[in-house]
Amino acid sequence: MRAVITVVGKDTVGILAKVSDVCAKSNINITEVSQTIMEDMFCMIMMADISKSSISFTEFSDELTEYGAENNLSIHVMHEDIFNSMHRI
User: Fold this and answer.
1) 8: Cα separation from own chain's centroid
2) For 14, 23, 56, 58, which has the most beta carbons within 10 A of its beta carbon?
3) Apex 46 CA angle, 81 and 4, nearest 5
4) First vs last Cα of the chain: how many Å apart?
5) Would you say 4 and 47 are in contact if contact means Cβ atoms under 8 Å apart?
6) 72 contact partners, CB below 8 Å, separation of at least 6
7) pLDDT-based confidence at 84, cuts 50/70/90?
8) Verdict on whether the full-model pTM lies above 0.85
């Protein structure tokens, strides 16, 4: 099982490190990362393997959402099944 994580917000030091740390603490492996800085905006998409996660998907999503709210970032976590269903014709 995989999850798609998106992060958007004003660029600051440590965004990638903190999101990665949240994943690592929950035994979630980041398999792919794409990030860019557009002027002063940080934009990142991650693919993460959640099959061996030590917490529920909801807990993981809530933790990243809370971190985002505390740091003026928009962070969304979407289960791969939802992502695939949304893009199936």
Assistant:
1) 10
2) 23
3) 15
4) 21
5) yes
6) 9, 10
7) confident
8) yes
Evaluate whether 49 touches 1 at the Cβ level (below 8 Å): yes
Strand partners, 30: 48
Whole-number Cα distances in Å, 89 to 4, 29, 85, 86? 20, 29, 9, 8
3-class SS string, the chain: CEEEEEEEEECCCCHHHHHHHHHHHCCCEEEEEEEEEECCEEEEEEEEECCCCCCCHHHHHHHHHHHHHHCCEEEEEEEHHHHHHHCCC
Closest CA to 45 of 60, 27, 58, 32: 32
Burial class from Cβ neighbours inside 10 Å (0-12, 13-18, 19+) for residue 15 reads: buried
